[in-house]
Amino acid sequence: MRGVVRYVLAAITIPASVVMGPVDTSIAATKQPSGNSIASVSPTRDAVVGVAHPVVVTFGGPVSDRRATERALDITSSPAMTGEFDWLADNVVQWVPNQFWPANSAIALSVGGMKTNFATGPAVVGVAKTADHTFTVTIDGVEAAVLPAPHHRPNWGKPGVFPASMGRPEYPTPVGTYTVLAKERDVVMDSSSVGIPVDSPDGYLLDVEYAVRFTRRGLFVHSAPWAINSLGYENVSHGCISLSPEDAEWYFNTVNIGDPIIVQENSIEVPRSVPAPENGVEVPRVIPR
Protein backbone atom coordinates (compact mmCIF):
# COMPACT_ATOMS: atom_id res chain seq x y z
CA MET A 1 0.00 0.00 0.00
CA ARG A 2 1.52 3.30 -1.03
CA GLY A 3 0.38 6.87 -0.94
CA VAL A 4 1.43 10.49 -1.00
CA VAL A 5 2.44 11.71 2.44
CA ARG A 6 1.82 15.37 3.14
CA TYR A 7 2.44 15.94 6.82
CA VAL A 8 4.91 18.29 8.44
CA LEU A 9 7.00 16.31 10.89
CA ALA A 10 9.38 19.01 11.99
CA ALA A 11 6.97 21.85 12.71
CA ILE A 12 5.26 20.33 15.73
CA THR A 13 5.88 21.29 19.34
CA ILE A 14 6.05 18.28 21.65
CA PRO A 15 7.64 18.12 25.12
CA ALA A 16 11.12 16.63 25.30
CA SER A 17 9.99 13.61 27.33
CA VAL A 18 8.07 12.23 24.38
CA VAL A 19 9.60 9.59 22.08
CA MET A 20 9.99 11.35 18.73
CA GLY A 21 11.88 10.95 15.49
CA PRO A 22 15.60 11.73 15.96
CA VAL A 23 17.25 14.96 14.81
CA ASP A 24 20.98 14.97 14.06
CA THR A 25 22.73 18.08 15.37
CA SER A 26 26.26 16.68 15.05
CA ILE A 27 26.82 18.22 11.62
CA ALA A 28 26.25 21.86 12.59
CA ALA A 29 29.58 23.00 11.11
CA THR A 30 28.76 21.74 7.61
CA LYS A 31 28.15 24.46 5.04
CA GLN A 32 25.57 24.46 2.27
CA PRO A 33 26.20 26.12 -1.12
CA SER A 34 25.30 29.66 0.02
CA GLY A 35 27.67 29.36 2.99
CA ASN A 36 24.91 28.81 5.56
CA SER A 37 25.61 26.19 8.21
CA ILE A 38 23.42 23.13 8.70
CA ALA A 39 21.94 23.07 12.21
CA SER A 40 20.29 19.64 12.07
CA VAL A 41 19.07 16.85 9.83
CA SER A 42 16.19 14.45 10.44
CA PRO A 43 16.32 11.44 10.37
CA THR A 44 19.67 11.18 12.15
CA ARG A 45 22.60 9.14 10.93
CA ASP A 46 21.87 5.39 11.13
CA ALA A 47 18.34 5.99 12.48
CA VAL A 48 15.64 3.43 11.66
CA VAL A 49 12.36 5.16 10.83
CA GLY A 50 8.95 4.47 9.35
CA VAL A 51 8.32 4.33 5.62
CA ALA A 52 6.53 7.71 5.50
CA HIS A 53 9.23 9.73 7.29
CA PRO A 54 10.24 12.94 5.43
CA VAL A 55 13.76 14.34 5.25
CA VAL A 56 14.05 17.66 7.12
CA VAL A 57 17.12 19.92 6.99
CA THR A 58 17.41 22.94 9.29
CA PHE A 59 19.99 25.61 8.49
CA GLY A 60 21.66 28.02 10.87
CA GLY A 61 20.02 31.04 9.28
CA PRO A 62 17.64 32.13 6.50
CA VAL A 63 18.33 30.59 3.09
CA SER A 64 18.45 33.20 0.35
CA ASP A 65 18.72 30.87 -2.66
CA ARG A 66 16.22 28.07 -2.11
CA ARG A 67 16.60 26.58 -5.59
CA ALA A 68 20.36 26.18 -5.20
CA THR A 69 19.86 24.60 -1.79
CA GLU A 70 17.29 22.16 -3.17
CA ARG A 71 19.65 21.21 -6.00
CA ALA A 72 22.39 20.53 -3.46
CA LEU A 73 20.23 18.05 -1.55
CA ASP A 74 20.66 14.58 -3.01
CA ILE A 75 18.73 11.53 -1.78
CA THR A 76 19.63 8.03 -2.96
CA SER A 77 17.46 4.97 -2.42
CA SER A 78 16.70 1.71 -4.21
CA PRO A 79 14.46 2.02 -6.07
CA ALA A 80 15.02 5.71 -6.74
CA MET A 81 12.29 7.94 -5.29
CA THR A 82 10.74 11.16 -6.52
CA GLY A 83 9.45 13.78 -4.13
CA GLU A 84 8.72 17.42 -3.46
CA PHE A 85 10.29 20.18 -1.38
CA ASP A 86 8.33 22.12 1.23
CA TRP A 87 9.88 25.10 3.02
CA LEU A 88 8.54 25.02 6.57
CA ALA A 89 10.40 28.21 7.50
CA ASP A 90 13.01 30.42 5.88
CA ASN A 91 15.69 28.12 7.28
CA VAL A 92 13.91 24.72 7.23
CA VAL A 93 13.32 22.60 4.13
CA GLN A 94 11.47 19.30 4.02
CA TRP A 95 11.66 16.73 1.24
CA VAL A 96 8.62 14.48 1.05
CA PRO A 97 8.71 11.32 -1.09
CA ASN A 98 5.81 10.88 -3.50
CA GLN A 99 5.44 7.28 -2.34
CA PHE A 100 6.32 5.50 0.85
CA TRP A 101 9.97 4.55 1.17
CA PRO A 102 10.73 0.89 0.44
CA ALA A 103 10.67 -1.09 3.68
CA ASN A 104 13.85 -2.40 5.29
CA SER A 105 16.12 -0.36 3.05
CA ALA A 106 19.01 2.11 3.31
CA ILE A 107 18.72 5.74 2.20
CA ALA A 108 21.75 7.98 1.60
CA LEU A 109 21.52 11.76 1.94
CA SER A 110 23.96 14.49 1.03
CA VAL A 111 23.58 18.26 1.40
CA GLY A 112 26.51 20.13 -0.09
CA GLY A 113 29.55 18.50 1.52
CA MET A 114 27.62 16.74 4.29
CA LYS A 115 26.80 13.06 3.89
CA THR A 116 24.62 10.90 6.11
CA ASN A 117 22.32 7.90 5.91
CA PHE A 118 19.31 6.34 7.58
CA ALA A 119 17.19 3.22 7.15
CA THR A 120 13.57 2.21 7.13
CA GLY A 121 12.11 -0.61 9.18
CA PRO A 122 9.18 -2.82 8.22
CA ALA A 123 6.27 -0.99 6.60
CA VAL A 124 3.78 -0.84 9.47
CA VAL A 125 0.69 0.69 7.87
CA GLY A 126 -2.42 1.42 9.93
CA VAL A 127 -5.76 2.04 8.19
CA ALA A 128 -8.66 3.38 10.23
CA LYS A 129 -12.09 2.90 8.63
CA THR A 130 -14.53 5.15 10.42
CA ALA A 131 -17.67 3.57 8.97
CA ASP A 132 -16.47 0.03 9.69
CA HIS A 133 -15.14 0.89 13.19
CA THR A 134 -11.87 -0.93 12.50
CA PHE A 135 -8.14 -0.21 12.55
CA THR A 136 -6.30 -2.61 10.25
CA VAL A 137 -2.54 -3.06 10.53
CA THR A 138 -0.31 -4.60 7.87
CA ILE A 139 3.41 -5.27 8.16
CA ASP A 140 5.20 -5.31 4.81
CA GLY A 141 1.82 -5.78 3.14
CA VAL A 142 0.77 -8.74 5.28
CA GLU A 143 -1.96 -8.51 7.89
CA ALA A 144 -0.50 -8.63 11.38
CA ALA A 145 -0.93 -12.00 13.06
CA VAL A 146 -0.07 -11.17 16.70
CA LEU A 147 -3.58 -10.39 17.88
CA PRO A 148 -5.92 -11.23 20.75
CA ALA A 149 -7.88 -14.47 20.75
CA PRO A 150 -11.20 -14.56 18.85
CA HIS A 151 -14.04 -12.78 20.62
CA HIS A 152 -17.78 -12.43 20.10
CA ARG A 153 -17.42 -8.76 19.09
CA PRO A 154 -17.23 -7.75 15.40
CA ASN A 155 -13.83 -8.44 13.76
CA TRP A 156 -12.22 -9.47 17.06
CA GLY A 157 -9.44 -11.97 16.37
CA LYS A 158 -9.31 -11.46 12.58
CA PRO A 159 -5.69 -11.18 11.42
CA GLY A 160 -4.64 -7.56 11.28
CA VAL A 161 -8.05 -6.12 12.21
CA PHE A 162 -8.51 -4.25 15.48
CA PRO A 163 -12.05 -3.27 16.54
CA ALA A 164 -11.88 0.48 17.05
CA SER A 165 -13.84 3.60 17.84
CA MET A 166 -13.11 6.87 16.07
CA GLY A 167 -14.45 10.42 16.44
CA ARG A 168 -18.17 10.86 16.96
CA PRO A 169 -20.12 13.19 14.62
CA GLU A 170 -19.34 16.32 16.68
CA TYR A 171 -15.61 15.50 16.70
CA PRO A 172 -14.93 13.48 13.52
CA THR A 173 -11.54 11.92 12.89
CA PRO A 174 -10.28 13.79 9.77
CA VAL A 175 -9.89 11.65 6.65
CA GLY A 176 -6.34 11.71 5.28
CA THR A 177 -2.88 10.16 5.27
CA TYR A 178 -0.67 10.96 8.26
CA THR A 179 2.65 9.92 9.76
CA VAL A 180 3.39 8.78 13.29
CA LEU A 181 4.95 11.80 15.02
CA ALA A 182 5.64 10.49 18.51
CA LYS A 183 4.92 7.68 20.97
CA GLU A 184 3.89 8.50 24.53
CA ARG A 185 3.63 5.66 27.05
CA ASP A 186 1.49 7.60 29.55
CA VAL A 187 -0.28 10.93 29.13
CA VAL A 188 -3.12 12.88 30.72
CA MET A 189 -5.81 14.23 28.38
CA ASP A 190 -7.73 17.26 29.63
CA SER A 191 -10.85 18.46 27.76
CA SER A 192 -10.63 21.92 29.35
CA SER A 193 -7.63 22.63 27.09
CA VAL A 194 -10.03 22.96 24.14
CA GLY A 195 -12.76 24.79 25.99
CA ILE A 196 -14.77 21.79 27.21
CA PRO A 197 -15.15 21.94 31.01
CA VAL A 198 -14.11 18.71 32.67
CA ASP A 199 -17.40 18.57 34.58
CA SER A 200 -19.57 19.04 31.45
CA PRO A 201 -21.32 16.08 29.75
CA ASP A 202 -18.60 16.08 27.05
CA GLY A 203 -15.74 16.73 29.44
CA TYR A 204 -13.01 14.38 30.65
CA LEU A 205 -9.70 14.18 32.46
CA LEU A 206 -8.18 10.83 31.60
CA ASP A 207 -4.98 8.90 32.16
CA VAL A 208 -4.19 7.43 28.74
CA GLU A 209 -1.71 4.67 27.94
CA TYR A 210 0.07 3.59 24.74
CA ALA A 211 -0.59 6.84 22.87
CA VAL A 212 0.73 7.05 19.29
CA ARG A 213 0.49 10.66 18.08
CA PHE A 214 -0.35 11.31 14.44
CA THR A 215 -1.25 15.03 14.38
CA ARG A 216 0.44 18.01 15.99
CA ARG A 217 -2.87 19.04 17.60
CA GLY A 218 -3.03 15.83 19.56
CA LEU A 219 -4.86 13.06 17.71
CA PHE A 220 -3.65 9.64 18.80
CA VAL A 221 -4.14 5.93 18.43
CA HIS A 222 -4.41 4.92 22.08
CA SER A 223 -5.71 2.52 24.69
CA ALA A 224 -9.33 3.22 25.70
CA PRO A 225 -10.54 0.67 28.27
CA TRP A 226 -13.53 2.90 29.03
CA ALA A 227 -14.74 2.44 25.43
CA ILE A 228 -14.50 -1.37 25.25
CA ASN A 229 -18.25 -1.77 24.71
CA SER A 230 -18.11 0.62 21.71
CA LEU A 231 -15.10 -0.86 19.91
CA GLY A 232 -16.19 -2.30 16.58
CA TYR A 233 -19.71 -0.90 17.02
CA GLU A 234 -19.78 2.91 17.17
CA ASN A 235 -17.63 6.03 17.11
CA VAL A 236 -17.60 7.74 20.50
CA SER A 237 -14.22 9.50 20.81
CA HIS A 238 -13.27 13.17 20.49
CA GLY A 239 -11.29 12.39 17.31
CA CYS A 240 -8.71 9.86 18.45
CA ILE A 241 -8.57 6.23 17.32
CA SER A 242 -9.50 4.14 20.38
CA LEU A 243 -8.33 0.54 20.79
CA SER A 244 -8.47 -2.10 23.50
CA PRO A 245 -5.54 -1.98 25.95
CA GLU A 246 -4.01 -5.15 24.46
CA ASP A 247 -4.29 -3.93 20.87
CA ALA A 248 -2.98 -0.47 21.73
CA GLU A 249 0.04 -1.91 23.54
CA TRP A 250 0.86 -4.19 20.60
CA TYR A 251 0.60 -1.34 18.08
CA PHE A 252 2.63 1.01 20.30
CA ASN A 253 5.44 -1.54 20.50
CA THR A 254 5.33 -2.36 16.77
CA VAL A 255 5.02 0.96 14.92
CA ASN A 256 7.99 3.26 14.15
CA ILE A 257 8.11 7.04 14.19
CA GLY A 258 7.33 7.98 10.58
CA ASP A 259 5.09 5.02 9.73
CA PRO A 260 1.80 5.94 8.00
CA ILE A 261 -1.69 6.09 9.45
CA ILE A 262 -4.49 6.34 6.89
CA VAL A 263 -7.98 7.44 7.91
CA GLN A 264 -10.81 6.68 5.51
CA GLU A 265 -14.57 6.42 5.72
CA ASN A 266 -15.03 2.92 4.31
CA SER A 267 -13.26 -0.10 2.87
CA ILE A 268 -12.91 1.31 -0.65
CA GLU A 269 -11.60 4.84 -0.34
CA VAL A 270 -7.87 5.29 0.25
CA PRO A 271 -7.08 9.02 0.63
CA ARG A 272 -3.92 10.21 -1.08
CA SER A 273 -3.16 13.27 1.01
CA VAL A 274 -4.00 15.10 4.20
CA PRO A 275 -6.72 17.76 3.82
CA ALA A 276 -6.28 21.36 4.94
CA PRO A 277 -4.72 21.51 8.39
CA GLU A 278 -6.49 18.64 10.10
CA ASN A 279 -9.86 19.99 8.96
CA GLY A 280 -9.63 22.57 11.72
CA VAL A 281 -10.49 19.92 14.30
CA GLU A 282 -9.40 20.88 17.79
CA VAL A 283 -8.37 18.13 20.18
CA PRO A 284 -7.07 18.20 23.76
CA ARG A 285 -3.52 19.12 24.59
CA VAL A 286 -1.42 16.38 26.12
CA ILE A 287 0.26 16.82 29.49
CA PRO A 288 3.28 14.46 29.67
CA ARG A 289 4.02 12.82 32.98
Describe the protein in words.
One of its GO terms (cellular component) is extracellular region. This is Lipoprotein-anchoring transpeptidase ErfK/SrfK. With 289 residues, the protein is mainly beta. The chain contains two helices and 20 strands. Strands 1, 15, 16, 17, 18 and 20 form a six-stranded mixed beta sheet that branches. Strands 10, 11, 12, 13, 14 and 19 form a six-stranded mixed beta sheet that branches.
Question: What is the typical, i.e. mean, pLDDT?
Answer: 81
Shape: globular
CATH architecture of the largest domain: Beta Barrel
Major β-sheet annotation: 6 strands, mixed
Number of structurally distinct domains: 2
H/I helix tally: 2
Which fold name corresponds to the CATH topology of the largest domain? L,D-transpeptidase catalytic domain-like
CATH superfamily of the largest domain: L,D-transpeptidase catalytic domain-like
Report the structural category. Answer: mainly beta
Keywords: Acyltransferase, Cell shape, Cell wall biogenesis/degradation, Lipoprotein, Peptidoglycan synthesis, Transferase
InterPro entries: Big_10, LD-transpeptidase, LD_TPept_cat_dom, Transpep_catalytic_dom
Pfam family, one: Big_10
GO molecular function, one term: peptidoglycan L,D-transpeptidase activity
Short description:
It comes from Mycolicibacterium rutilum. This protein has 289 residues and is mainly beta. It contains two helices and 20 strands.
